[in-house]
Model the fold of this input.
Amino acid sequence: MLKEFFSRSKKRNSSKVHRNGNGGRPLSQEGNHIRHPYFTGPLAKTNVVIWSYDFVTGRMACSSGIEQLTGYRASDFERGKRIWQDLVFEEDRPGYEEKRKRVNRGENIHHQYRIADASGTVRWVEEFISPKMDENQRVVRLDGFVAEVADPSVPGDPADLFSFHDPATGLGNRKMLEAKIASCLQDSPKRMFAVLLFQFDKLKSIAEVLGVKNEQKLLKILLDRLQDMKIPYDHLYRLDSTVFGLFLPNIRDEEEPKKTAQRMIANLEAPVPLENYEFLFPVKIGISRYPNDGSAGEELINRAEIALNHAEDYGEERIKFYFPAMDIEARHVFQTEADLKKAIRQNELTLLFQPKVNAKNNAIVGAEALVRWNHPERGLIPADQFIRIAEKSELIDEIGDWVLKQTCKILADWTKRKLPAVPISINISPKRFLRGDYPGLVRNVIRRWGIDPGLLEIEITETSLMENKAVVTDAIQQIRQLGIKFSLDDFGTGFSSINYLKQFRTIDTLKIDKSFIAKIDEDPQMSAIVKSFIMLAKGLDMEVIAEGVETAGQLKFLTDNDCPVVQGFIYSKPLFLSDFEVLLREGEIRPKIGSATDIMENDRRGYFRVNFPSRKKGWLTVKAVRGKSVNAGKAPIDIKNIGGGGLCFLSDLDLPAGNQMLLAFGFELKDDPFVLNGHIIWKKKLRKGFEYGAEFIIDENERARLIKDLNQVLVSQRHLLFDPFA
Ligand code: C2E
Ligand code: CA
Ligand code: CA
Done:
């Protein structure tokens, strides 16, 4: 509808408007093919047209709504066979052309006029047009939106639909990327292409901290770097505040997008100078490919997004390709998020308390509040099965605020009941400090419950301090002025240097991470590191506590090395409130000496297990979630052992334990294929991925076949062990 406006303005005057039944060829249903599906949703079926005209390529694209609105084929307009101006009602034409001139000068316009459709019916439409300019203030593209309006005195408000660009950068947005893919699919459906989504997690916090101007500067620097890599501007998109898209047309092989992604990381991650500082902007990338990963724009973008969610913040795993099994996890995350929202409302969260003990006299000197989800069907769900999911959304703030209020309420109750209260520490997610209202909230809550601020402590992790120094320290200062203490949680796992810590006179306690404690018994290097942490804390005038203390050896090492305050299973697991109150009255607790047996590794029904030291390959799929069957892809698993009752496997997927998800496991034993249903009954987070225990749901015949084969495997494993020729 505008190709002609710029290229065929002379002809326009001689054309006629079809009116009252003459002229146009009405569309047959068969000829009605889907065009650039800007909208595949409900709008595609209404009389709404979205179009875009690119001056550089001379290409015009319009949504299929034009067929409903005018009765002419969209392709006729796109190929220039039919001209929109010809449809404009004669009386409205002067006003129409006047408006179009203004677009040409770079103005956004909104106007209403009449057109005559193929049947000659006159219709009122309203149109928005937005020009995109280059740096020389030349119009390079127009995007328009036309909607039929019933009565001009009551115009609709389609303005919110009319956005194809990110206002801050001028890049196309998600809708635009979808349109781009759609047109590419139409032009050359046989070519391979890729969608890369890349995310700068820190962008949002920088904008909040350094202001919009700096955000603009920063964006410009990052986009310039992409330009330097010869990535054309019109292949770049901005999908939301931190996520950008790159469309890679015509890739030759699977490796090409990966190479581009690696180059992007190398270029984008150079330090950015801003406000006399240098900032690092880690970037991660998710990739989907056509035709492998989908056949429509929306699907390919969603799948690149799923891959992006799997990408890690650091290291090799920053670039992830989509693979079908990721859907299983995406579904789980989605479901958990929805359930968690409900759980918060329905009061399904609960707090457990784990004592902090001074090992010199076994006195309880404090406790850490740890959240659990008391699920009506799945029972008590551990924190790490939902906290990480909650951290991806605003839910984590809701949980954190609930924990704060609940803890204060309990502390007030102890005072009222004259229990010998000890300080309780709560875990606060780094993100929470970035919203300026936190210090105010803490103040209000402690006043509301009238508690002694000395009884409340906040644990934050090292990385949260490092990432947004200014805002976070400021918030900490304000909260400390109320009399509340801070601990640096998981200390040692981040990157704090001594110099760095010195600046943080704001931290009261270092909490040495359990991964170090776990190794002090066996690893002399680790014990040296722990010693240095303790000395560091003393040197900086900080308190120190060790977490995850499980054995008598660890406890002795810590007390011998001047770190008597500990938390860990050797004294107690996290306890329900009523149990913790019993301890609180007693005031002390004795360590449990003797090593904990790992019941999880044993087959609960007493079947023998066959171990596969070099891991057996298998797969899993999700068959049903809460009784609803699903059709998910197969994900590879590495099997550690198999028994008559279940198996133990490793996977990158983050799956829930419990019987709400029915899985099927596939593997081969002695060339016999097995596909067995089962549930996950326990899971363990590993440094990379997860370890799971699953219980089979099988009938006794199938079990007999399994055990027979397992027996044979066992025999051959033994045989191998003693084989003189092996
Ligand atoms: P964290 O803050 O490092 O909490 C300590 C975790 O170690 C707890 O796991 C605790 O049960 C576990 N633990 C305690 N003693 C031992 C031990 O001797 N050995 C071993 N192996 N583990 C021990 P939990 O409760 O599952 O919490 C896991 C993580 O979830 C926490 O790690 C924390 O990062 C997060 N989390 C828990 N509650 C909250 C909360 O209310 N808010 C937020 N934002 N995060 C929470
Ligand atoms: Ca903690
Ligand atoms: Ca910790």
In short: The longest strand covers residues 609-625. Residues 489-490, 511, 513, 547 surround calcium ion (ligand 3) (CB under 6 Å). Residues 356 and 567 are 5 Å apart (CA to CA).
